[in-house]
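Task: sequence in, structure out. Protein: [RNA-polymerase]-subunit kinase.
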Amino acid sequence: MELVGSSLRSWLTRPSSEDQTRAYMRQLLDAAKKLHSTRTLHRDIKPENVLVTPGGMLKICDFGCATPMNAAGTPYPKRRVGTMQYCSPEQLMGSKCYGPAVDMWALGCVMAELLTGQPLFEADTEEDLSLIHI
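Result:
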């Protein structure tokens, strides 16, 4: 088993170069492509669920909310899962079916945070957070 240093959340507190940020963004997109090629949705991509190895490789972890996709490419969600700051509008609105776009939305939120050092969406209450997304 590989020892992984820290999460992307702790990396966000450190200064980094544009090149390193771009490399991390590329790795995140590649990881999502590989994950979706296995017909799996993660549904909870966020900085805490991305580990950074000592060599600078990113590893997506915590597949507790993951679900397989059906033939049409969508899961059958029974309830909202994921972390509100990174949930897509369709997840927050209780859509019956959704696909890889929910992970891509979350990746976009993570990438915005990589670039700015701040979460893309912040609010005092879950209701306000939902309204900001939608």
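The mean pLDDT is 86.
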